[in-house]
Amino acid sequence: MQGDPEVLEFLNEQLTAELTAINQYFLHAKMQENFGWTKLAKYTRHESIDEMKHAEILTDRILFLEGLPNYQRLFHVRVGQTLTEMFQADRQVEVEAIDRLKRGIEVMRGKGDITSANIFESILADEEHHIDYLDTQLELVEKLGEPLYIAQLIEQPES
After folding, report:
1. Does residue 9 have a known ligand-binding role?
2. Which of 67, 80, 112, 122 has the most CB atoms around it within 10 Å of its CB?
3. Which reaction does it catalyse (predicted)?
4. 132 annotated ligand binder
5. What pLDDT sits at residue 59?
6. How many CB atoms lie within 10 A of CB 143?
């Protein structure tokens, strides 16, 4: 089934965002693990895997619409050096994704591609959940301070 070029461009642009997010979240998870923030590292790694699932769904849709998924392009990976910077960098990725997804949904519905719009709506719900989590964490860091917040992230290894 031949897809609309504008719809395919939105799908590929979101695919680029997901591939970028996979890398950013995975790097942050590895940094968090290295810092000993085991609980946060597990959560962040899970977010990276969620973005991988989004990339898979988008790839399948692009191929179904006889397009070519662009795996060669990435947006800028934002690397935080502190806990707060990591949360802020990840939040920015989500803000941009939400804007892109909303614009894409409008275009897709306007062109009658309800399936692609539904895919974007499903991803949008996940991204809204993630930005809510990040906002909550940033508020907690502000209230508690980074040292006390970080103290909650440490897990002792099993002997």
Report:
1. no
2. 67
3. Fe(2+)(in) = Fe(2+)(out); 4 Fe(2+) + O2 + 4 H(+) = 4 Fe(3+) + 2 H2O
4. no
5. 99
6. 9
